[in-house]
Amino acid sequence: MNQQELEAVLSSLNLSAIHYFDSVGSTNDEALAMARKGAKDLTLVVADEQTMGRGRLDRPWFTPPQTALAFSLILRPTYAEKALLSRTVGLAALALSDVLQTLNLSSQIKWPNDILLNGRKLAGILIEAVWFEDEVISLVIGMGVNVSKGSVPATDILGFPAISLEGLLGYLPDRMIILNAILANIIALRPQMGTDAFLSSWEKKLAYYGRQVRVEMGGEKSVSGKVVGLESDGSLKLLGDDGKSISVRFGDVRLRLFA
Ligand code: BTN
Predict the structure, then answer these.
(1) Tens digit of pLDDT for each residue in 187-240?
(2) Rounded to whole angstroms, how far apart are CA atoms 112 and 96?
C-alpha cells in the first residue's frame, strides 16, 4: 500500500484528498488537525502503521505495520446531517457490515462501536468532532480493521477476544479493496441516515439483542436490562428488571451471565 496505489484503487470515489502515511501517530489526530484547518468533505487519511492509535475512552489501538486497515474519513456535515450526528457511528458500522456480508461474514455491532464476528472483535470505530463555537463543523470517522493475523492484539491487552479477516477467511484479503468497498458504502448510505430503514438495519445488526446486559458507564455507575433496540438518536434501549425502558447514551456493554 502506498499513495499511488491508493489513488488508483480509490479513483472512482471522488474523494477530495487522500493522505497516506507509512507510519503515523493516529490517523484520527491527523484528520482532526486537517479538519481544523478546513479540510474538505471526504478527505481521507490512511496509515500502514499507527504508533499512537486510539480507541474509545482513550484506550490504545494497535496497528502494527502491514497488518491492518487504519483510516480516518473527514465529513463536513450538511445542515440536514447536523441533526443526525449521533447516527454517524451506525453509518460506519453498517458500511463495514455490508462489506463483510459480501465476504459471507455475518457481523454484529456491539453497541456502540465494535464490530464482532463470532463474538470476537474484528474492528473498532472512533467518531470525533471538530466544533466551532457551539456547532460541529467536521466529523472524523476513524476505523481500524484487523486484516492479517498479525494485527490481532492479545485478549488480555484488549480485555476482549479479537479476530482478523485472515483468521476468518483463511486467506489474506487486499486492504485497499476492503477500504474502497467500505468508503463506497459510507458514501452510498449517507443520504439514508435519517430514514427509519437505516435505523432498523442498524438495530438488526445489534449484538446481544434480547439478552440481559450490564452497561458500565465509568466508576461505579452501571445500568442493567434486556437489549430491545435503539432510540432514534442511536442510544441503546434497554428494558430494565422493573419493566421500565432505559436509554443509554454511552458505556461499555457486557453480557450478564446468570448462574
Ligand atoms: C475502539 O474500538 O474503541 C475504536 C478503535 C478505533 C481505531 C481507529 S484506527 C484509525 C483511527 N485512528 C485512531 O487513532 N483510531 C481510529
Answers:
(1) 999 999 999 999 999 999 999 999 999 999 887 889 999 999 999 999 999 999
(2) 14
Per-10-residue mean pLDDT of the chain, 259 residues long, equals 97 98 98 98 98 92 96 97 96 98 97 95 97 96 96 76 95 97 98 97 96 89 94 96 93 80
Answering whether pTM is above 0.85, one says: yes
Instruction: Calculate how far, in angstroms, residue 44's C-alpha sits from the geometric centre of ligand 1.
Output: 14
Is the CB of 110 within 6 Å of ligand 1? no
Nearest CA to ligand 1 atom 11: 142
Question: Cβ distance 206 to 109 under 8 Å?
Answer: yes
Nearest-CA residue for atom 2 of ligand 1: 124
Q: For the chain, how big is the Rg over CA atoms in Å?
A: 18
How far is residue 179's CA from residue 10's CA, in Å, rounded to a whole number? 8
Cell of 49: 502503521
Q: Hey, which of 126, 151, 160, 178 would you mutate to test ligand 1's pocket, going by the most ligand atoms within 8 Å of its Cβ? A: 126
Looking at the CA of residue 144, tell me the nearest atom of ligand 1: 9
